[in-house]
Design brief:
Largest sheet: 5 strands, mixed
Shape: elongated
Number of helices: 4
Oligomer: single chain
Structural class: alpha+beta
Bound molecules: zinc ion
Length: about 240
């Protein structure tokens, strides 16, 4: 018999009670609604500093949380356990995402509409990936734009921001339940005077990224840190394989 749990904090409404629920010690005679409710750690800290009411952690809830069933916070209908809750919440196909480009920050997008936004609105170069061997000389045109490699029901996004090469996986993790991660190897080259690739600037070889929608910093572009990076052109050499 499972208990269905609502793990959203009464104040910020985010599903943060999984990391511990807190409650104000003032349970009677309060003028503030938050005093009687379950709060996340950061909302309980905010409540304490605004009211000087001490908050305590409701440890008795921990064992119930671990035995419970949790609804997906994005309302996709999935029944989750505490063990797979965090991973699902970050890879759910209904998770709302913000555009990662610093001058844009538009939202909300879903994994597939964010990929098309990057291509249509930010001029990201788009190609397919076959999950076999290296894809050579993918132009990563300039700082502020990038590359979207389209796979099966998922996208592999690469872009340069400031002096780093970044990666985002976009997809529905349920499409490949047996493959929670994938092999990724990336080499970044600077374009030579003829426009073709010249020297290697950095690479990423491990660990295998999980099919979770987070930004990964692949490498620092050390040798061009002193040059105006917006004037540079880059090429990628990328290996993506579906091996666990
Ligand atoms: Zn909260
Ligand atoms: Zn209080
Ligand atoms: Zn979901
Ligand atoms: Zn954008």
């Amino acid at each position: 018999m499972f208990i269905r749990l609502d793990l959203s904090c009464s104040s910020c409404r985010q599903p943060r009670l999984l990391d511990g629920a807190y409650q104000c010690t003032l349970t009677a005679g309060s003028l503030d609604e938050a005093c009687g409710q379950l709060l996340c750690y950061s909302c309980s800290r905010a409540h304490s500093s605004a009211t000087s009411h001490p908050c305590f952690r409701v440890v008795g809830l921990d064992s119930r949380v671990m035995a419970g069933v949790i609804d997906c916070p994005h309302r996709c209908g999935a029944n989750l356990t505490p063990a797979n809750y965090m991973k699902h919440a970050r890879s759910c196909k209904l998770r709302e995402l913000m555009c990662p480009m610093s001058m844009c920050r538009q939202k909300p997008f879903f994994w597939n509409t964010l990929a098309s936004h990057l291509i249509d609105h930010h001029g990201f170069f788009s190609e397919n990936t076959t999950y076999e061997g290296y894809k050579e000389d993918i132009p990563l045109i300039r700082c502020g734009t990038g590359v979207v490699l389209e796979g099966q029901e998922e996208y592999f996004v690469f872009f340069i921001a400031e002096t780093g090469l970044y990666f985002i996986w976009l997809g529905d993790a349920k499409a490949k339940p047996d493959l929670p991660s994938f092999m990724l190897k990336v080499y970044l080259h600077q374009a030579g005077p003829d426009g073709g690739p010249r020297e290697e600037l950095g690479h990423y070889l491990s660990p295998h990224p999980a099919r979770v929608m987070d930004v990964i910093h692949l490498c620092v572009i050390s040798r061009v840190t002193n040059v105006n990076i917006t004037q540079q052109s880059f090429y990628l050499r990328v290996l993506i394989e579906d091996r666990a």
